Amino acid sequence: MSSKKMSIKVCDIPSCHNVPNNTLRIAIKEAIKEYNLEDKLEYVKNGCTGHCTPFVFIEDGDDRYLYADLTPEKVKRIIKEHVLEGKPVAELGGKF
Ligand code: FES
Fold first, then answer.
1. Tell me: the pLDDT tens digits for 64-76?
2. What's the whole-model pTM score?
3. Mutation test of ligand 1: which of 12, 16, 25 has the most ligand atoms closer than 8 Å to its C-beta?
């Protein structure tokens, strides 16, 4: 894992018709606070990529990960395991 700040991108279009992303946004912000990751993980607003499924991108140094079909619980797990512990969650996504 890089010592550079990581970023997590999620669709942040107010009219996003992918309703679960609203809950993902809340869960991401809660997890950043809960795990004290303000200096390590940057929340980045993303436009619609056309996927329109509950997903996030994580940029970790030069590596980009896509995690999809998420729930608030799954995104919190990704933040804990990937960002906090440095262990990408292979069963939920991977590099692309
Ligand atoms: S408009 Fe939000 S994911 Fe497409």
1. 999 988 999 999 9
2. 0.88
3. 16
